[in-house]
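call fold target=LysE family transporter
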Amino acid sequence: MFDVLPSIVTALTGSLAAPTLPAFSTAFLAGMALSLSLIMAIGPQNAHLLRMGLSRQHLWLTVVVCVIADMALIAVGVIGLGQLGQLSDRLYGALLGATVLVLLIYGWQAARRFWEGFWRGFKVPAQEVDRANQTVSRRQAVTAALTFSWLNPHAWIDTAVLIGGASLAYQADARTGFGVGAMVGSLIWFVAFGALAWWMGKRLGQTSIWRWMDGLVAIMMWAIAATIALDVVS
């Protein structure tokens, strides 16, 4: 699979490779574009960040931790996995299987919260409101962000494996530019998404709105899981 990644990236970003742009700049733009395209899906990491924004607790600390964790995965991919060129089919299949399992579990948890709210007419009991408003410590916020970033197989596949494999399209300094561009793309996304979550938290302070977000997250998680599973089967 990874043998074709460089050619795909080159074809998709060939329009950026104008003679007036240095190789570093071209690779930088390609890395940023690929990073943004991979990270925009509502995965467990983004869903957690959104919930932190709605609850207005340690949002920007969570953003910082997510950015640092994502940059670390990108560095592992470009410097480590990217140098290897490809993973064995068995290891790659194991990562995909673990990803499907994590997405199904996370989607089921979100769907359960949605259905519980649905059967109550989205009227949230007082004790649940109190639980949602419980203060989260900084250590808990950091631990949760790292868990969703580093213990999520989907993040490893998208951030480390795919970006690392795509970096093989470039040589020396250009590969560094690709990695830096991917990191900048991650920074742009998390800061922008954090700002959106903060804005939504100020205007959508009702706990019941979380139920609709849970329904959306469940659909997205299961859709991604189904897509990956179909890709494995085919």
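return ok
The chain has a mean pLDDT of 75. The longest helix spans residues 172-203.
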